Amino acid sequence: MPTKKNKSKTSSKLLVCEICGHKAARLVKRPQVLGKGAAMIVIEDVPVISCRHCGESYLTAETLHWLDQVRRGQRQLQSRYQIPVAAFV
Ligand SMILES: [Zn+2]
What we know:
The chain is of the alpha+beta class. The protein has a domain at 28-87. The protein contains 1 helix and 4 strands. The protein has one helix at residues 61-71; strands at 25-34, 41-51, 57-58, 85-87. Strands 1, 2, 3 and 4 form a 4-stranded mixed β-sheet that branches. The chain is elongated. The model has no long low-confidence stretch (mean pLDDT 82).
């Protein structure tokens, strides 16, 4: 008989939400859009903290810094589609 210690279906651990302080947030990967029009860049798989307690989603300081570097052209992105699409690395 298997012991069921973990009731949750997902294996990703819960994080403490920086907004509401509840341990109900988890890391998800979502596309982020930078800029608009011809300068628009879609970045796939950007790590986002999503809280199921307060419903907020936010980026970590590290990710914001990375996105800022992308915006300033300090990061080399790999284009995969006709509009520039890059993956968080
Ligand atoms: Zn929260």
